[in-house]
Amino acid sequence: MSALTGRVRRFLQRPGTVDLSAHQRLLPAIAALEDRLREVPDADLHGLASGTGDLIGFCAVGREAAWRALGERPFDVQLLGTLAMLSGQVAEMATGEGKTLAGALAAAGHASAGRPVHVMSVNDYLARRDAEWMRPVYDLLGVTVGWIGQASTPAERRHAYTAQVTYAPVSEVGFDVLRDRLVTDPADRVVPDPGVVLVDEADSVLIDEARVPLVLAGSAGVAQADGTMAEVARWLRPGLHYEVDDDGRNVTLTDGEGGRPSTHWAGSTCMPAPAWTPSPG
Predict the structure, then answer these.
(1) What is the CA radius of gyration of the chain?
(2) From edge to edge, which strands make up the β-sheet containing 117-121?
(3) What's this model's pTM, rounded to 2 decimal places?
(4) H or E element: which one contains 177?
(5) Are 42 and 161 part of one and the same domain?
């Protein structure tokens, strides 16, 4: 019956079509480990988290770490969200159900398996808040965490990306990727090879934010040859040395009277000097 219901839901393309019964069956086994884990010292939780090798053991350790670090015991609905995200599924959770903690446990699970994790949010505030809020949980699980904001320096960004879990606004990660494509030395790149991305507020990030193009802009520095080029351009005469198209957007040097600038270099290694003598006045 459940298989038929699932097929009907997928046919209707309705949300919530994933069958959670496989995850729900794990909840009693996770709860059964709680009493045993209460006797485990804090220093040993890291080894248990990275050495369980199964979802039941990790979720049990994650629940215990959250209780010790934050005084919050993840509810079953939060563990269902964690299990879904660890399985590569989208988890829709209502406001107040604790998606921040569920996402943190999922991020720690992927990181414990050796995969770098980016947790993408919609703004700087959420990235910093969630990273600092969940840091005690990550510390108990032996997972390093960092965050990036709009004001982060290149050094701060590089350091944050070295963490196993990095919180950042989606736009900042996008800009870092664009900047990495402009570097001439691969060692200057800051974004590591992709691993796992967990998207907070998926509708805002994947729909609203995705509609805003990322554009790198900024002022160019003053180069050594700028003064020489300005001096050459000052002596050019329209119609004699160059022509402007009808739209006024393109300029072309002519072959008419006065000729083109000479290819002899004068006082600069990057700008030819004029081959003509400018008329007085």
Answers:
(1) 30
(2) 145-147, 165-169, 117-121, 196-199
(3) 0.72
(4) helix 170-180
(5) yes
Q: In which band, very low, low, confident or very high, does the pLDDT at 221 lie, cut at 50, 70 and 90?
A: low
Say which amino acid occupies 108. A
Residue 229 and residue 121 share a domain: no
Measured CA to CA, the distance from residue 5 to residue 172 in angstroms comes to 41
Q: Give 175: exposed, middle or buried? Use CB within 10 Å, 0-12, 13-18, 19+.
A: middle
Asked if residue 198 and residue 248 are part of one domain, the reply reads no
> And the tokens for 276?
């003509």
Comparing 86 with 52, the larger pLDDT belongs to 86
Tokens encoding 38: 């209460």
Both tokens assigned to 51: 């050495």
Beta bridge partners of 169: 121
In a domain, 216, yes or no: no
Range list of H helices, 222-274: 226-234
User: In terms of domains, do 109 and 204 share one?
Assistant: yes
Query: What does the alpha-carbon distance between residue 210 and residue 77 come to, in Å, rounded to a whole number?
Result: 29
252 and 274 assigned to the same domain: yes
Last residue of a domain, one of 211, 234, 259: 211
| Domain count along the chain | 2
